[in-house]
Specification:
There is one protein chain. By secondary structure, the protein is an alpha/beta fold. Helix 9 links the parallel strand 9 and strand 10. Helix 2 packs parallel to helix 14, helix 3 runs parallel beside helix 4 and helix 13 crosses helix 14. The chain has one domain: Luciferase-like domain (TIM Barrel, Alpha-Beta Barrel), CATH 3.20.20. It is built from 14 helices and 13 strands.
Length: 423
């Protein structure tokens, strides 16, 4: 059976948990350089091992240092320069707080820089510090269930997300476009632009009255825009899963709890079928996991507890991440411990044989062909992460009968084939 693996890298500062606890790790230039060095080693290895993609998150003001990824497209450009086949994505660009035209342009540029390896990931945003500050001019708010104004803020967040996504798709799919929505009018009315060069070289952009009538982005994507893979990460929201199924977007399910994950798959499959998409159950969807493989279980646990075990319990629990570990009907507090993250199946952690059994069960029960391992570059020891990936691909996958495959991008029909890297 063929399967795709895509690495999710935050990344974090290149520091030990003890160094993080001293404070302001995110502004320490030594830690950032160390983190980049570790990520660069991972990128080159993932490219060689046959991983499908790497994706970076978007978070701002991270003085704590646990999520230093304020510009995933720019970070992706850095990654593209060091790789040849690995696709470059985001998990994800926080759409409600972003200018959609600028983001469409940035992603198109990344597509050209990488030779058509761009994949797009869009998120709704859950961190108030970031979303409400960056998106204040658009009245953007995060979507968090414990928000006293959840209904109002979630409504505006979803409105912005959907409208911004629509604008990006219009920009990619058309030489010229206009958009008249609730939050954006593109172009705004009354912009005088009776330039003779525009009339001659970009006909249709200017109206008969000499005002700007439509706009377009340049460059546009290198890929055929109808074939660009789009992801929405860290989701369990029924509305988001249904929207993804209707749009042909790939949601990456966050929960490892089998009953909850199957419920997400049921919903996606039903919505996809209703939208006329003939997909087998379990397909069109990805799943997050941490996968740490070592020669001994103790070594795997030590790597996990210094990496995601530290990041999750020190940072993500406060945002409600442990709710993704809750069993149906369970009440009370979920233990905020690395052991809980392992025991409830989010972190697959152990020897080759142990991981093979866990991975085999996951693939069989969820019928998945796409897994997105979360790699805790920064606090986790880099040599242990590299060893883990090596064991996963060279030992675990063959044991389970899985073979890595990659999505093959389709470039625009008018592209002649000469890439900027071509000799």
């Amino acid at each position: 059976m063929k399967i795709r693996l895509g690495s999710f890298l935050l990344p974090s500062a290149g520091a030990t948990p003890a160094e993080f606890e001293r404070g302001y790790a995110g502004q320490n230039p030594n830690y950032y350089q160390r983190g980049l060095k570790d990520c660069a080693r991972l990128l080159r290895q993932l490219d060689e091992l046959g991983f499908d993609f790497v994706a970076f998150s978007e978070h701002h003001f991270h003085l704590e240092g646990l999520e230093i990824s304020n510009n995933p497209v720019l970070l992706g450009t850095w990654a593209a320069m060091q790789t040849e086949k690995l696709r470059i994505g985001q998990m994800g660009n926080v759409l409600p707080a972003r200018n959609p035209v600028l983001l469409a342009e940035d992603l198109a540029m990344l597509d050209h820089f990488s030779g058509g390896r761009m994949m797009a990931g869009f998120a709704r945003g859950y961190q108030a510090r970031h979303v409400a500050t960056i998106g204040q001019k658009m009245n953007a708010h995060p979507t968090t269930a414990n928000d006293p104004q959840y209904a109002e803020h979630d409504k505006v967040n979803r409105e912005l997300f959907v409208e911004h996504y629509d604008i990006i798709r219009k920009a990619w799919g058309n030489a010229l476009f206009r958009h008249d929505g609730k939050h954006w009018q593109l172009p705004p009315p009354g912009i005088a632009w009776d330039h003779p060069a525009t009339r001659a070289l970009a006909p249709g952009m200017v109206g008969d009255d000499g005002t700007l009538e439509r706009i377009g982005i340049a460059p546009n994507t290198l890929q055929d825009p109808s074939t660009i893979e789009v992801y929405i990460p860290f989701t369990m929201s029924p509305a988001t899963i249904e929207w993804s199924a209707q749009q042909g977007v790939i949601p990456v399910i966050f929960t490892p709890i089998e009953a909850l994950a199957k419920g997400c798959l049921d919903l996606y499959h039903q919505a996809a079928q209703a939208a006329g998409r003939d997909l087998a159950w379990g397909k069109g969807v990805g799943h997050f996991r941490e996968i740490v493989v070592a020669d001994t279980e103790a070594e795997a646990v030590a790597c996990m507890e210094r990496g995601l075990g530290y990041i999750w319990t020190r940072w993500h629990d406060w945002f409600g991440f442990n709710e993704a570990l809750r069993y149906p009907g369970e009440t009370g507090e979920i233990p905020n411990t690395p052991a809980c993250v392992r025991e409830r199946g989010y972190s697959l952690c152990g020897t080759v044989d142990q991981i093979a059994r866990q991975l085999e069960h996951m693939v069989k029960t969820l019928q998945t062909d796409l897994i997105v391992p979360w790699m805790s570059a920064g606090p986790a020891p880099i040599d242990a992460l590299l060893r883990s990936n090596e064991l996963l691909v060279e030992k675990v996958l063959p044991l389970v009968g899985l073979e890595l495959t990659r999505f093959q991008p389709s470039l625009r029909a008018e592209f002649g084939g000469e890439h900027w890297r071509s000799p």
